[in-house]
Every structure is written in structure tokens, then in C-alpha cells.
Design a protein that fits this description.
By secondary structure, this protein is an alpha+beta fold. About 40% of the residues lie in helices and about 20% in strands. Helix 1 (about 1-40) packs across helix 4 (about 75-105). It starts with a helix and ends with a strand.
């Protein structure tokens, strides 16, 4: 009796293992099909929706720490986790489908094929419905009927692969059972023992694992190929262009060491190096011919503008620096570009704002929303449709994004589809999670050379050594930014803040709305370790505070420091 129970237990485990592995293999194929539909046709990709639901439910404190540790990769780690969870779920569904296949083996091909399609389809559709109800943002917002339609092809693929593999497995098990039931098996050639059963099961398991491994590798290459192909196509169409500027001469910095020339060359950040922080895993694909900008709310003359109508309005061109509120002291989530667009004031003048309106709300294609005070919207805010001389790239908000001087990047909405005037203080997506609704830039400065701060934003700068030779000329350079207040002075300390000396400042590209480059040459007079610190003073005379503060909830503060070692030649 114990032997029989052990045998049945082993058979149950074998079937669970088969169902799970088949589910993994078929689920991998289903995800590839789903991803291709998402990229090529704007379909539903469940892991993307799951990761964005996670963003919606994550408190600002946790999100801030994730960005501090992982930077722009924080959202991709959640995406990878969602893909992994989805594949495991398919494995569990495979166990259920295999059990049903055993029970329905005698019901015919149609019934069996339908169940291995409908079971995973129903489960994933139900989960997608729940997630879509919980999330506040969705890169590809879809109606329920469209969600239902887009889930059909991947699960037909799941069903076909599962059905074939389940049929092969059931056929093998049936053959083994018949041979064991034969009272007179050929004595030397066809006697099946428990060892034979285990051997067949192991072989099938190994074969299925091989299929899963091959499918996973193929899926990874396919994902990479699709992503790189689309990226290459986008880069070919949107080659970053740096517009010449009358202020591009280095001025007082022109006689400094050539090691920091790359810093000057990338004062305007190329589009492919411009920082990207948002909730979108897959960049929204928006057809400018179908896109409309709705201007609504407390207005005498609400309107809807097409892309061509917007571009036909009088344009403004301006350099502006954007920075993520999650940027750490010395962090690289900051960049500068040359933008072209339409003053928000011009649009609102046509729409005729009612007296009771106090806030402007930007609503975006992916569900993101954020509000700014009316007065700030009327003072220099514009809606950009070009970046560094080319059409605004999709990654940076095509067809339209906001450029709002003086406040952090989370207030500079991307993929705008509507502007609404309201009569109350409006808290947007991140503000509802605890981030500041005022979000004014804090004055800060960073050392780029030597070290590796911001090296991803400055082409060719790269990490530079912090070990220098006694008596040699050592270039030290970086950036300073104070939002729309401008920077009047940058100072360096070589002794950890005991004494300070002024650095040379390059004229800002655009008044007070861009970072400034600063630099100096230092000649160390003695060996040892030095703590080099930098601080800036804004245009109103406010000195950068020394106290350290993490980004949450209203931006980081504190002196950026680099430790240097002076040695003899």
C-alpha cells in the first residue's frame, strides 16, 4: 500500500512538473507575441500594466529611495520583476491546464484546445481588469473591449503550444500504463518497470526544460532586436542637433586647461544623453495627425488645437535646464537643451481665462497629471514641440511637453493631451504620494572634473582621476543651477569648508533658466588628502545651504565633495 501511494505521489509530482514547465514555455511565447503587438500596434502588455500599477501604489518615500539607488533603472527593475511574475503565473496556469487536459482527454481536440486557450486568457484578462482599475498611469490606455481583443493572439499561441506538448505527454503516459498492464510482456525487450517510468519522465522533463531555455533565449534576443530596431529607427529620424549660440564661447574659461574642453562642448545636452525619468516602461507612440490638445475648464472660450494649428502659432525658442526632484547631491538627473514651442500665455489669452481660475492642470496621454499656479503658467511657461533643433523625441514627450521655469522636472509634463483651468490648488500624480506641490529648485552645484559626477551628460568627459601630482596644474570644473534665480557666484574649498575661493563662471546660455559652467585651476603645494567642496550663490544673493537633505519631498541639498590625493611625481 505504501509503495502504491508513493508511486501515485511521484506521478502527481511529475504531472505538476510537466504542467509547470509547459506553462513556462508557452507563457514565454505568449509574452513575446503580446510584446510585439504592444510595440507594433499599441496593444496590452500585462507586465507593463503591472509595473505601472506598482508605481501608482508606491509611496513617494520608497520611490525616492529606489531612484537614488537605481536611477532611471528603477522602473525597469519593476518591469523585469513583473515579467518574471507573469511567466511564473503562466507556469501555475500550465499545471491547471494539464490537469484539465487529463480529465478532458476523451472529449475531442476542439474541447481540449479551447480549454488551454480560455483558461489562461480568462485569468490574465481578469488580472488586467483589476490592474487597470488600480493604476493611475498607463502608457497605452485601452478600453475593456480592446484589452479583450489584444489578449486573444498571445493566448491562442499559448494554447497551441500547450495543447501539443500536453498531448505528447498524455500519449506517453498512456503508452507506459498499457505496457505495465500487459500480463505477458516480452521478457527481454519490453518489460517496463518503475525505473523505466521514471526514466521516461526525466527525459520528458529534460526535453521540456530545453524547450523553455531555448524559448527564453530566443525571446531575449527577439526583445532586444525589436527594441534596438525601434531605437535605431528613432535615432535615425531624430539625430540630436546642437544649435549654435552666441554665448558658446568660453569667455573667462577660455584659458583654462584643455582637459575640461568636453565640458564646454556638452553644455547643451544631446538628446540621447538627456536624462529620462518617468513612469513609462514603453515610450508612448502618438500619431500627431490624430493627436489633439484640449484646452478646457474655467475658460470663456474652450478650444481644441491640432498639432499643425499649434505649430502655426508664434513660436518661442529658449535654452532651459530640467532637473528631476529625485536628483541626489552630485547626481546626474539634470540636463540642458534648446527648446522651441508656444507660450502657454498665448494659448490662454485666446481661451480667455475666467477670474476664478487659480491653477493650470496638465493632463497627459499616459494618465499622468500635474498642476501649476496660474501666475507661473503666465510667466515664461511654454509648450515645446522641438528639442535641440529636431522634432521633440518620443522619449521626451512628443508631440508636446511643458517647460516650466523654476520648478523641478516632475512639473514639466510630457505627452500632454489636455490643459484644464481649475479654481483650487491641484495636487498631481507625485504630489498625491507626498512630493512637494511647490517644487521650486534649490540652489546647488556639482564637481564634474575630477571624478565622475554627471559624466553621462557630458560626452567625452568620463570619470577622471582624483590622484594628482604635487605642483601640477589641476583643472576642477562643474555646473551650478538655481532654477529661475540664476547663479551669481561659485566658490571652492580645498580644506573641507574652512576657506573658500571664487571660481570662474561662464555666462549662462539663457539668462537665469539654465545651469552655468564654472572652472578653476588648482596647483597643490603639499602632499596629502584634500576634501574639495563647492557651493554656489544665486542671483538674489542666497548662498547654497550646507545642511544635507535627501530628495524627498522637495529636492536634495548639501555640498558636493570630491576627495583628492596629492602625490609626488
Amino acid at each position: 500500500m505504501c509503495v502504491k501511494n508513493l508511486w501515485w505521489g511521484q506521478q502527481l509530482l511529475n504531472r505538476i512538473g510537466k504542467g509547470f514547465v509547459v506553462g513556462l514555455a508557452a507563457g514565454g511565447v505568449a509574452l513575446v507575441i503580446s510584446y510585439m503587438l504592444r510595440i507594433l500596434g499599441g496593444g496590452l502588455f500585462a507586465p507593463e500594466l503591472a509595473s505601472q500599477t506598482l508605481f501608482s501604489l508606491t509611496p513617494g518615500t520608497i520611490e525616492s529611495e529606489a531612484v537614488a539607488i537605481l536611477g532611471a533603472f528603477a522602473k525597469y527593475s519593476a518591469f523585469v520583476g513583473a515579467i518574471t511574475a507573469n511567466i511564473i503565473l503562466y507556469g501555475v496556469i500550465g499545471i491547471l491546464s494539464y490537469a484539465l487536459s487529463k480529465r478532458l482527454a476523451s472529449k475531442g481536440h476542439v474541447i481540449n484546445l479551447l480549454q488551454v486557450i480560455l483558461v489562461p486568457y480568462s485569468i490574465i484578462f481578469a488580472i488586467a481588469m483589476v490592474l487597470s482599475g488600480l493604476t493611475e498611469v498607463a502608457t497605452q490606455p485601452l478600453t475593456i473591449p480592446l484589452m479583450a481583443i489584444y489578449l486573444i493572439p498571445p493566448h491562442v499561441g499559448f494554447g497551441l503550444i500547450s495543447y501539443y506538448m500536453f498531448r505528447m505527454s498524455i500519449k506517453s503516459e498512456t503508452m507506459i500504463a498499457h505496457k505495465e498492464a500487459d500480463p505477458l510482456p516480452p521478457p527481454a525487450t519490453t518489460s517496463f518497470t518503475q525505473h523505466d517510468v521514471n526514466t521516461v519522465n526525466r527525459r520528458e522533463f529534460i526535453r521540456m526544460v530545453g524547450v523553455v531555455a531555448a524559448g527564453s533565449i530566443a525571446s531575449a534576443f527577439l526583445f532586444q532586436w525589436i527594441t534596438q530596431s525601434l531605437s535605431s529607427a528613432g535615432n535615425a529620424a531624430q539625430t540630436p542637433i546642437t544649435r549654435p549660440s552666441p554665448a558658446n564661447s568660453t569667455g573667462p574659461l577660455s584659458n583654462l586647461s584643455p582637459e575640461i574642453s568636453s565640458l564646454y562642448a556638452s553644455e547643451i545636452t544631446p538628446n540621447d544623453r538627456f536624462y529620462k525619468i518617468d513612469t513609462s516602461i514603453v515610450t508612448p507612440v502618438i500619431d500627431s495627425n490624430m493627436w489633439r490638445l484640449m484646452v478646457k475648464g474655467l475658460l470663456e472660450n474652450p478650444m481644441t488645437l491640432t498639432y499643425d494649428e499649434l505649430k502655426a502659432m508664434p513660436a518661442i525658442e529658449q535654452y532651459a535646464t530640467l532637473e528631476c526632484v529625485s536628483n541626489e547631491v552630485g547626481g546626474d538627473l539634470i540636463s540642458t537643451a534648446f527648446w522651441k514651442g508656444v507660450l502657454l500665455k498665448d494659448i490662454l489669452e485666446k481661451a480667455q481665462v475666467k477670474p476664478e481660475a487659480t491653477y493650470i492642470v496638465f493632463r497627459c496621454h499616459d494618465g499622468y497629471d500635474v498642476g501649476i499656479p496660474l501666475e507661473r503658467g503666465l510667466e515664461g511657461t511654454f509648450l515645446a514641440y522641438e528639442m535641440n533643433g529636431v522634432t521633440l523625441p518620443a522619449d521626451h514627450g512628443f508631440p508636446l511637453r511643458a517647460i516650466v521655469p523654476g520648478i523641478y522636472g516632475m512639473m514639466n509634463a510630457k505627452w500632454i493631451t489636455a490643459i484644464e483651468l481649475v479654481d483650487r490648488v491641484y495636487e498631481g500624480f507625485w504630489q498625491r504620494k507626498g512630493w512637494s506641490n511647490k517644487a521650486e529648485h534649490k540652489i546647488h552645484s556639482s564637481i564634474v572634473v575630477p571624478g565622475n559626477a554627471l559624466s553621462r551628460r557630458f560626452a567625452g568627459s568620463g570619470p577622471s582621476s582624483t590622484t594628482v601630482i604635487l605642483g601640477s596644474k589641476v583643472p576642477i570644473a562643474g555646473v551650478a543651477f538655481a532654477g529661475d534665480k540664476g547663479v551669481s557666484k561659485v566658490e571652492l574649498s580645498m580644506d573641507g569648508g574652512i576657506s573658500w575661493e571664487a571660481a570662474k563662471i561662464k555666462k549662462a546660455l539663457s539668462g537665469s533658466n539654465t545651469w552655468v559652467l564654472w572652472a578653476t585651476d588648482w596647483i597643490p603645494q603639499s602632499e596629502g588628502r584634500y576634501s574639495v567642496s563647492v557651493r554656489a550663490t544665486d542671483g538674489s544673493g542666497n548662498v547654497q545651504p550646507v545642511g544635507f537633505q535627501k530628495p524627498f519631498p522637495d529636492g536634495s541639498s548639501g555640498y558636493h565633495m570630491v576627495n583628492m590625493i596629492v602625490v609626488k611625481a
